[in-house]
């Protein structure tokens, strides 16, 4: 798919181009919503709201970033709104944003070398999903975008409208938290 061409056609009102963009990104947006909220209904809502926003605002896309970065930002914002509207139903772990200057002095646990997309172990995936829901949303979104969806640090920073340094700090915090939560099951399943 020539994304720039399809986006330009969609900006001209071409319904077929919209359909191509929806088909290209629907699975990724749905899984992003599912990881953010842990609920299928919420993920479906995020998916629908994201594509409605895309339809209404595609003419505002200027091409300063990749189209999917722009679309992911819409999806993340929709997901964060959904989480905030249900704030009382989520338990947050007390993780504080560290001072960026102190980041270099903090110990970074070594994250296991494996690709989450290649893990078929249902028990591990269930534990990961549960552990993700324990993370405050600011850490969860960075982890999901970087490690589960494979976006770069700079793309993640643009999507979330934070600095690259802050992205790295949040990712480090999320990885350390998840490593502690999942270490036993990773060892048990021989994934390390």
Features:
192 residues; mainly alpha; Rna Polymerase Sigma Factor, Chain: A; Arc Repressor Mutant, subunit A; 2 domains; 8 helices; 0% strand; globular
Explain this structure to me?
- This protein has 192 residues and is mostly helical.
- The protein folds into two domains: 3-88, RNA polymerase sigma factor, region 2, helix turn helix motif (Rna Polymerase Sigma Factor, Chain: A, Orthogonal Bundle); 91-188, Winged helix-like DNA-binding domain superfamily/Winged helix DNA-binding domain (Arc Repressor Mutant, subunit A, Orthogonal Bundle), CATH 1.10.10.
- It contains eight helices and no strands.
- It has helices spanning 3-11, 15-37, 40-57, 67-85, 122-134, 137-148, 153-160, 164-188.
Topology:
Layout: H1 3-11, H2 15-37, H3 40-57, H4 67-85, H5 122-134, H6 137-148, H7 153-160, H8 164-188
Helix pairs in contact: 1-2, 2-3, 2-4, 3-4, 4-7, 5-8, 6-8, 7-8
Q: What CATH architecture of the largest domain do you see? A: Orthogonal Bundle
At the fourth level of CATH, the homologous superfamily of the largest domain is: Winged helix-like DNA-binding domain superfamily/Winged helix DNA-binding domain
Please write the string of helix (H) and strand (E) elements: HHHHHHHH
How many extended strands? 0
**Helix-residue proportion:** 55-70%
| Class per helix and strand makeup | mainly alpha
Radius of gyration: 18 Å
Tally of alpha and pi helices: 8
Total individual domains: 2
Oligomer: single chain
- How far apart the termini lie comes to 37 Å
Question: Could you name the CATH class of the largest domain?
Answer: Mainly Alpha
Strand portion: under 5%
